[in-house]
Every structure is written in C-alpha cells, then in structure tokens.
UniProtKB/TrEMBL annotation:
Keyword match Iron-sulfur: yes
Binding site for [4Fe-4S] cluster: 130, 134, 137
Catalytic activity: adenosine(2503) in 23S rRNA + 2 reduced [2Fe-2S]-[ferredoxin] + 2 S-adenosyl-L-methionine = 2-methyladenosine(2503) in 23S rRNA + 5'-deoxyadenosine + L-methionine + 2 oxidized [2Fe-2S]-[ferredoxin] + S-adenosyl-L-homocysteine; adenosine(37) in tRNA + 2 reduced [2Fe-2S]-[ferredoxin] + 2 S-adenosyl-L-methionine = 2-methyladenosine(37) in tRNA + 5'-deoxyadenosine + L-methionine + 2 oxidized [2Fe-2S]-[ferredoxin] + S-adenosyl-L-homocysteine
Binding positions (S-adenosyl-L-methionine): 185-186, 219, 242-244, 318
Top enzyme category: transferase
GO MF annotation terms: 4 iron, 4 sulfur cluster binding; metal ion binding; rRNA (adenine(2503)-C2-)-methyltransferase activity; rRNA binding; tRNA (adenine(37)-C2)-methyltransferase activity; tRNA binding
Sequence similarity: Belongs to the radical SAM superfamily. RlmN family.
Biological role: Specifically methylates position 2 of adenine 2503 in 23S rRNA and position 2 of adenine 37 in tRNAs.
Domain Radical SAM core, chain residue ranges per copy: 116-355
UniProt name for this protein: Probable dual-specificity RNA methyltransferase RlmN
Amino acid sequence: MTEAPKAGQLTFVAPRRAKPQRHLADLTMAERRAAVVELGEKAFRADQLSRHYFGKLTETADEMTDLPAASREVLAQLMPDLLTPVREITCDDGTTRKTLWKLFDGSLVESVLMRYPDRATICVSSQAGCGMNCPFCATGQAGLTRNMSTAEIVGQVVAGARTLARGEVPGGPGRVNNIVFMGMGEPMANYKAVIGAVHRMVDPSPEGLGISARGVTVSTVGLVPAIEKLSNEGLPVTLAVSLHAPDDELRDTLVPINTRWKVAEVLDAAWAYAAKTKRRVSIEYALIKDINDQEWRADLLGRLLKNKLVHVNLIPLNPTPGSKWTASRPEDERAFVRRLEFHGVPVTVRDTRGREIDGACGQLAAANPTS
C-alpha cells in the first residue's frame, strides 16, 4: 500500500504521456481478430488486413480492393499513419538512405536503409532519444524523450521494405534481409515493444514480415537482466553488446550503465546467451582516438574474448559536430585489429557508410529540432 504524503511534503507525479494510436502491428494475430470483431467486422478480415500490410506491403486500406468498401473504411482504423517523413537524405549513389521521421507527438527518430550487392539492411530506432547518456553518442547527448511503440518500430521496416519493393533504390526491386536495432535508443530499455516488433518481423505472413530471425540483431549497452530474459524468448536473433572498453575504469565513463553492471557481468550474460541460442555474440567497439584504441586495451579485450562464440565489430567513430571525440588514426585501428587477431578473435571493421549524411544516429534529429 502506498503511504500518503505527510503534510508539507512535496510529491512528484509523472505526467501521463499520450500513446500513439493502436495499429495492427501492435497486436498478435489473435488480438487483431478480436479488434476487428470489436469494430463490427468478421474475424477473418484481420487475416486479410494482415496479409495486405505484412505480405503485400499495402500502404492504405483504400488500396485493398478485394475488401468491400465499407469494410475498408472500418479497418482503416487499425492502420493509422504513425510515421511522417520529415527529411530523407542519400549517399553511396542512392544505396544508403537515411530518413528522419516525426511521430504523432512531434518526437523525431531516424532509420537508415543500406543496400549492398547481396543484401539490404535497415537500421531502426527503438526509442525517441536515449537515456543511457554515453558521452560520445549524439542520441545519448539528447536524452530520452520516450519509448516507441511496437508498431512505430515495425513501421520503419515496412517503409524500407516498400521502398525496396518499388525499385526506388538502385539495383531494382528487392527486399529487406537484415534488421539491426542500432538506431536511436537502448532496445533493452524498451523490452516489451522491441520483442513485439521482433515477432512482427520474423513471424510468417500474415502474422508478420517473415524475415529470418538470424537476420535480426538486437543491440544493448549491457542491461544484464534483459539479456538474460532475451535468452529465454526462443528467438535466435543475434545479440550485439556495445562494449567500447574492456576495463571498468574507462567503461564507467564511456558507458555509464557500467557503474551498475560491470564488464565481467555483461560478458557472462552474453556467453550464457550464446550457449543457450548457439548464436555468435557481436561485440561492438567504437574506436575513439587516444581514448580506447591503445594496443594494451586490444590485448585485454582479446584475452576476455578468446575461445568464445564471438565476433568483434570495430566501428570508426562517426564524430558529432563540436565533439571532442573523434575516430582513431588508421595506424592505430590497424594495430588494434592485429592484436585481436593475435588472440584468435574474429574481427572486422564496420563499413563507414553514411558519414556524409549525418550518419551517426541522432545527428539528423539534432539538426532538425521540433518546433
């Protein structure tokens, strides 16, 4: 029972945030059927609606000409517009496309569609802003505005899938192969919505988009209880741990949540995830000039990771305007790679797509503040 405030005691009541409209992507198939019945339609209309949205990538109910016009008008209530494009910029001859989206409450989020010769990847946001406060990250500097809903997350993927299907990206019509939760926000801090979104992505049509779970990567800065929870979901997605430092002293500064869960605890949770799912863990490591790119730190990282089911993804830091943080020198990057390879740790340096289009997540939103 909550104790009543004493006389003269100040209390703080968090303001109630309006929620985005309910969308069919927020719902399981059973919930969609119930929602359709509530609207006065037959339950099977939920299957038709889902097949259009997830299978045919139909944009509006008006386009569903195999449904009676009266039904389309009713079912449109389950397909509200949740994402409004504010700005889109491209590079790499049009094969990298970054979109700034406005949500219903004016919050801004970003997604990036990247097409390669053999695949197409979309990087999605899971929160508007981020509460993890990592000092080298544009989103972290902005702070957390709110969690995104499942449908707002899924909507980024569906929008990218439509763009590819229409042949609007050089290379002809295509489809999304990979989804990475490496946009704005800490996915594990919005756990329920993110897991719902993953299900919509991997469940077969008409339940979802039918993308392979092995093509989905969920990142985290190291929220240990959430990693443990994810290992029990039965979803063979790739876990990516944004480590950025192998020692607690530095990581406490670069990734402040490390003051709660230390490097050893985070890695133990990651190895338990790998053991349970048989999926290789990705260690994300942003190389920052003279901060975390020393060879002795590469050796320490190598000793922590050797003989584990792991892959290191080194990321040349994409600096934010005015930041003191910048990318490592090429010779230091090469030395870091050599030391990890010496320890037998698989390592690659991430493709630096998007630098010329405010590639670091949060930069485009910061440059386009809401009015």
